[in-house]
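Final report, results section. Input specification for complex C-07:
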Amino acid sequence: MKTFVYIDHFKGAVQPASWEALGLAKSFGSAVALVFGSGVDGIAQSAFEFGADEVLLVDDPALLDYRAEPFASTLSALAAASSPDLILFPTTARTRELAAMSAVDLGTGVLTDVIALEANGNQLVATRPIYEGKVLEKTVCSGKPVMATLRARAFPKPAAEAGRTGTLTKAEARAEALTNVEGYAVAENVVNLTDAGVIVSGGRGVSNNPSLGLDEMATAHKGFELVGELASVLGGAVGASRAAVDAGYIPYSNQVGQTGKVVSPDLYIAAGISGAIQHLVGMRNAKLIVAINKDADAPIFTQARYGVVGDLFAILPALTEAFKKKLGK
Amino acid sequence: MKIIACIKQVPDSEAKVKAENGQVSWGDAPLVINPFDEYAVEGALQQKEATNGTVTALCIGPESAKEALKHALAMGADEAVLVSDPALDGLDTLGAARVLAAAIQKIGGADMVVFGRQTLDNGAGLTPAQTARVLGWPMLGLAGQIKVDGGNVTVERVIEEGRQTVSAKLPAVLSVVQSIGEPRYPSFMGIRKASKATIPVWSLADLGVAAPAAVVTRAELMNPPSRETTVEIITGESPAEIADKLADKILAEKVL
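Structure output:
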């Protein structure tokens, strides 16, 4: 089976789930990595090291910024020219659009947020969560190629083999663009929640009262500092519940849950989060959930393996100190 | 400016959804407007107010989906259209995009089409971009802010890495995220107006399109494995003691 793997990157920084997709492609047969952008030959080399047999490199100044239309047209043209059986993507904001549009061009379907993909005879069967993960479906695509976006951390990341090479093929961009990129406000210290192995999240409980008085805002900032310190000792990312985002304690990009991000870290520590269903659907796939909350009846404890009923302002710094000691930091 | 807000009706997010006899069951939970689409209606209404325009809410679904459209009308949409046809059972996102594009063309004269980021049921989040592609219009996805200036629209996209400012010529298709602003509550007058509204129902024949054959189909439905939910509460004399015990428990799980 011939699989295209779209390597998603932002200004040259590759989404690690792209490599997970490459690993899955190799398990089915030959893997062709697609690298689009401007000045991205370094990514092509990384693709070989993570196992690509061939790299289709489209290096063109017109592709410097990701824009849905030219990227989709370029992808569709490459797929039409060499008829892969499968095109894999990591699931990101960009690839959802890109796969969606290219599927229109190719008259095929996209299976999104895939957590398992098996070959059953000639058919590929994908497992994906629906209804916010309350139900799972096995789904098939009768079109060709089958297109699938993989949920981050659902498939193992292959080991890189330094200096590995393969066939590098350069291809042309289809640069028709309908949109202009005017600029960016890139967040400082970007932590990608969907790729994080450890997440420490804060909720409304990082303040004593969500009424947004100045004192309460100061308390909340202190609370998120404590959340951040623990995350940093554990090498993890900072998340938040919607209540904390709505109260203005922390940006929307950190929100976990229904209207935020769905995450699946190995460890999720929820501090001051009561555990509304809208939050639980975003984090219940975590391997280990730890909850710290003042209220022993908070629903978050129904999902947690370990819990502490207490004040996060006392527990979080103590936990940070304990890990510093035990991890030798 | 003429704006179309595309919405869907889904089971309420509090519903206990499960797989039952190969079907998705949500018990007696109510069907509501998809929560993400409330943001789409809100975003559309903001642009209506900024440009002295109109908003038409558009939905594919059974007759009962008129309730979701009435919610949009009660929020302040001027008109609503339901596309309903027995041949639309098992519709996939590509089919939905083709049907929506045909309905958008039939409504006519739209400058902007606004979607929510994704639906709560299937959750693929593909339909906005696919509709844009079928129409051949620019796609501005995940907008947290929208600004219209003459024949141009500029949005601030909320992406994994931060914010990206992107512009395009109208007409364009947008999808919006929560940063657009809290959806307004239906007013008393709005609810009265919505309850009296006559919502036209268009069939595929009215749209002049053939029933799209689904490319993506469901083979099996499962309930997720139930997780270990017995919580062990860690106690101690002091925060330091609790933290020490908890850290040991976490380290023993080998998740770090």
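Chain A touches chain B through 93 residues (CB under 8 Å). The first strand of chain A starts at residue 2 and ends at 6. This concludes the modelling results for the funded period.
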